[in-house]
Amino acid sequence: MNPFTMYRELAAAGTMLASYPLDYLIRLGFPVGIRLSRDAVILSHGLGGDRANLAALAAWVRLAGFDNVHFFEYPTRQPIDDSAAQLVEMIARNNAGSGIHLIGHSLGGTISRIAASRIAAANIREGVVRSLVTLAAPYRRSQPNPHEIAIFGDEDPIVRPPGSEYRGVFKRIAVLHNTGHLGVLYHPETIRITLAELWGNRVPSA
Fold it and tell me: In DSSP terms, which residues pair with 41 in a beta bridge?
């Protein structure tokens, strides 16, 4: 890991710690200027993390006009299949007919991907998941999703970016330079790509 990436990871860890007060503000009700979409957005944290890890990204999502934001939290030792089943239930509860956007970091991205694949089996209308954005999420060829935007850091020692043999598994793969596992959460390109995907797939407010 080069010095710049190391600095970015340390800065990301510091930002993560600083996000706890921001998460408190979000719980109180973060202000939104203009509501641009009725869609719900569900963010899922990584292994051992919590909703505060995604507070900064959630703030950007809210400022972009998506004020129906939720956090999916799960126990560290819970089986992935159980977590995915719980997320499917959360999707069903929060779908008001306008669709859901899923954003997940690390293991939360894998859980989001699995949950999205189980929508039909849960008797939820096909197409309810309008966006799926994963950040540094573990992946398998057996878990393809043609709607998934998968973002990775090129110097992530935990989840290495996929090679060319994974073309067709995702809708798009974005590899961010000089970025590690935590840095991908706060990278400007992550924010730009995520908001562009949500914006492009949104249901405009009436």
Answer: 69, 101
